[in-house]
Amino acid sequence: MRVLSGIQPSGPLHIGNYFGAIRQYVELQRGHDAYYFVADYHALTSVRAADRLRGYVFDVIVDLLALGLDPDVAALFVQSDVPETTELAWLLTTVTPMGWLEKCVSFKDKVQQGIPADHGLFAYPVLQAADILLYDADVVPVGQDQKQHLEVTRDIAERFNNVYGAVFKLPEPYILDAVAVVPGLDGRKMSKSYDNTIEIFDDPKTILKKCKKIVTDSRPVEEPKDPDTDNLFQLFTLFAPADEQAEVARRYRAGGIGYGEVKTRLAEHIAAWFAPARARRAEWAAHPGRVAEVRAAAAARARQAARIVLDRARRACGVG
Ligand code: ATP
Ligand code: MG
Questions:
Q1: pTM of the prediction?
Q2: Which of 56, 191, 199 to mutate to test the pocket of ligand 1 (most atoms within 8 A of CB)?
Q3: On the chain, which terminus has fewer CB atoms closer than 10 Å, C or N?
């Protein structure tokens, strides 16, 4: 079974990326043929400064290594190190109806947030289909926001297969319900582009400052509260052990716990959770030569796999 997924170098990684995706990357790398990539072509739709993009790419590789990706097991590569991706994206574009892209919620959302709609943002799901189909991926671990894009990927693959014969494998999403959408400070999906994140590698002081900003209602300490509809509590359940969750939920319902206390305890849990990864991160960041070696070796492995599928697609549609 081949596992594949990608993450954009569009800013520092946050706890939504961790629970929605990266934790599953780490879990699935054992016992599967695993490919994970830093999606820099995708990030060009939001990052428009070369040095900043290069910095984010390096940071994401180092973050993933620190969080437990094993470069001897998984291929941890950079999307643009495999330029075959863009050629396949073009072949796929030619069989993709406009209507499929027009209905994509993430495109509509970003437009609604006032983010300008370039063709790249519109065609994003086609490039994403190329990312996935290029590696004959069986399983794609992602957050809920990517579910629709995965459906588009499958539709495009089916369409291409119908026109040209059996070229592509149809991938399955792997989404864990409990962590499918991690809420941000403002209650919307936590997103690098929404300025509502708690970063994985924020220092403990910054984590506390951000936790204090989590939006809640204004019920005072004594008043009963509903843990099931509270973002703060939802974040708390990601980090706190079960008995502590039960204690806090009970005090929410009974009244007698303030949001301030929960925010402080959440911040302590987050800092402790990522402390070992923070130490590993410092170690990798101090050795950029080793990071470059990981990147180069993974690119070679990914490119070899990609070439096989791209050649199959080219032959099928009669180019080259
Ligand atoms: P951007 O705002 O630039 O789109 P992002 O924060 O959404 O960035 P991506 O790089 O697009 O991050 O997503 C990487 C992976 O993390 C994807 O699998 C995505 O589904 C997952 N993910 C992102 N945000 C969340 C979230 N809040 N909850 C669960 N999973 C998430
Ligand atoms: Mg996203």
A1: 0.96
A2: 191
A3: C
